[in-house]
TrEMBL record:
Cofactor: [4Fe-4S] cluster
Gene: nadA
Residues that hold [4Fe-4S] cluster according to the record: 130, 216, 302
Name of the protein: Quinolinate synthase
Pathways per UniProt: Cofactor biosynthesis; NAD(+) biosynthesis; quinolinate from iminoaspartate: step 1/1
Enzyme class name: transferase
Bound cofactor: record note: Binds 1 [4Fe-4S] cluster per subunit.
Biological role: Catalyzes the condensation of iminoaspartate with dihydroxyacetone phosphate to form quinolinate.
EC number(s) from the headed UniProt entry: 2.5.1.72
Record-listed iminosuccinate binding positions: 67, 85, 156-158, 173, 242-244, 259
Organism from which the protein derives: Celeribacter indicus
Location(s), subcellular: Cytoplasm
GO molecular function: 4 iron, 4 sulfur cluster binding; metal ion binding; quinolinate synthetase A activity
Length: 350
């Protein structure tokens, strides 16, 4: 576990990280990307960290891969690439850098390491897990194979390297339906997200999709009753949900897609009002880009994603602590599952 007082004393020996309105003013171009959602007072706090991180990144030939659920100061201030799980995995494999800092959760860092074993992959906080990744082990995959002999196993990227290694192919929320549809067998095993699997089953009726009973603690909290009640009072609002939500929530929504699919929908449709049925930072991150869209409604926080902070990013860049390692034998098998997903996605034009 990261000792925050040690983190702070290490950083204060090397940097002046006191809030600085002058420095904040000199970094107006960066602030302009988030000024609708980050107050000037908060920006004066963040600016010294953003400056230190960006300088150190260049010195270490490092890149920061930021997931769409990062807070705005991370998403807009220090990330070199932002995106959903599939986009970040592809970027990890392609990017030319010695070091990747994964501003996201642990399974994403493992995926980067699996695809780029020669790079150093740093996690700002090793405890940034995921309820889905924690819900299944490689034994669970074997249990499903024993129950449905011959059926291929499609595992969500929100899994550990061991689970990916035990699976036939991975998927993300942006390609799950197409990947399941492309399997030869009539029965397809999907792990570990029961709701993503049920949503895919609805879209791919020609397959018998069987699933593991895992769920995302952020998205499982939404109910169709909440959505219908919200719609009653806000009939003009477009309701856009992530496919980790239970099927009745998706049925009550106007659109469902991965985090990048959600951004694309907002960009293409520019609704007057939108409710994003997903993690809270999504709406904050895109509200400067779409000032004409009013984002309404409740959102839920992912406690794992929220473990990542500017302070921890700077600390791992200074110390090079928290390097993510994957056993090479497991990584080799896991790479096959992830690479099959990337190749099939390209083949399908996704
Ligand atoms: P995306 O692939 O849609 O970014 O989802 C990742 C995730 O963890 C959502 O909860
Ligand atoms: Fe995992 Fe859900 Fe958090 Fe995504 S939002 S990292 S699926 S717990």
């Amino acid at each position: 576990m990261l000792d925050l007082s040690h983190v702070r004393s290490t950083l204060s020996e090397r940097f002046d990280l006191a809030p600085s309105p002058d420095l904040a003013a000199s970094m107006q171009d960066v602030y302009a990307r988030m000024d609708r959602v980050v107050s000037p007072v908060d920006w004066a706090v963040y600016a010294p960290y953003v400056k230190a991180i960006n300088e150190l990144k260049a010195a270490r030939n490092a890149v920061i891969l930021g997931h769409n659920y990062m807070t705005p100061e991370i998403y807009h201030g220090v990330s070199d690439f932002v995106g959903d799980s599939l986009q970040l995995a592809i970027k990890a494999a392609e990017v030319e850098a010695d070091v990747i800092v994964q501003a996201g959760v642990h399974f994403m860092a493992e995926t980067s390491k699996i695809l780029s074993p020669q790079k150093t992959v740093l996690m700002p906080d090793m405890e940034a897990g995921c309820s889905l990744a924690e819900s299944i082990t490689a034994d669970g995959i074997e249990e499903m194979r024993a129950k449905y002999p011959g059926a291929p196993v499609v595992s969500y990227v929100n899994t550990t390297a061991e689970v990916k290694a035990a699976s036939d192919i991975c998927c993300t929320s942006s390609n799950a339906a197409q990947i399941v549809a492309a399997m030869e067998s009539d029965t397809v095993i999907m792990t570990p997200d029961q709701y993503l699997a049920q949503n895919v089953a609805r879209d791919v009726p020609q397959k018998n999709v069987v699933f593991w009973p895992g769920s995302c603690i952020v998205h499982e909290q939404y109910t169709a009753e909440d959505i219908n009640e919200f719609r009653k009072w806000n009939p003009e609002t477009k309701i856009i949900a992530h496919p980790e939500c239970p099927p009745p929530v998706i049925a009550a929504s106007d659109f469902s897609g991965s985090t990048s699919g959600i951004i694309r929908f907002v960009s293409e449709n520019r609704p007057k009002q939108a409710m994003l049925v997903t993690e809270c930072s999504m709406a904050s991150n895109i509200s400067d880009e779409f000032p004409e869209v009013e984002f309404l409604g409740p959102c839920n926080m992912c406690p794992y994603m929220k473990k990542i902070s500017l302070e921890k990013i700077l600390y791992v860049l200074v110390t090079m602590d928290n390097q993510v390692e994957v056993d090479p034998a497991i990584a080799e098998k896991a790479r096959l599952s992830v690479q099959r997903m990337i190749d099939l996605s390209r083949e399908l034009g996704l």
